[in-house]
Amino acid sequence: MIRIISLSFILLFFFNSHTLSQDKIVFIDINFVFTNSIAGKDLNLQIEKKNNELNEKINNFKKDINTKKEKLISQKNVLSPEEYSKKIKELEIDIEIINSTISKNNQELSIFKKTIEKEFSKKLNIIIEEYSVKNSISIILKKQDLLMAKNDLDITKEILKIFNDKIKKINIT
Questions:
Q1: For 137, how many CA atoms within 13 A lie in the half-sphere containing its CB?
Q2: Range 129-139 average pLDDT
Q3: What percent helix, strand, coil does the chain show, rounded to 5?
Q4: Is 138 inside a domain boundary?
Q5: Which residues span the domain enclosing 61?
Q6: Which of 37, 123, 155, 173 is the most buried (most CB within 10 A)?
Q7: What φ, ψ does residue 114 adopt, rounded to 5°?
Q8: Is 136 left (phi over 0), alpha (psi -120 to 50) or beta?
Q9: Is residue 64 part of a domain?
């Protein structure tokens, strides 16, 4: 009886490991594809452009506030205390409005980045799916989730080439 159970266990283990060895597992560096693909570079430029515009607005706001602040300080001795206090409150209101605008612009930039990532991922997933079917791949992992793997399991450059051949630009609405 123990022999039959042991034999069954060994056979089950042998067939199970044989089945697992037929699965093809590879990995991909998605960030590499995003930063080095033609469409990804274009999207990165769009993000950078929006970020630069936001930074320029912030710097202009800071200059404007500093100018108003310096003007107010220079008028401190000329203005009555009530008028001076009124001007300080106006400046504080301006600062609150500017901070609110900056916060709103940061949120818009964040939403824009997420939209870009979503659209890029959609396009990339289609290509990865086609590649996995064509090459009988069972599992594709993200490189950043791996601790260690053989370099010959890396399909990043192959996917990058296919992605560049098929997708030149991704339009974000």
A1: 18
A2: 92
A3: 80, 5, 15
A4: yes
A5: 25-166
A6: 37
A7: -65, -40
A8: left
A9: yes
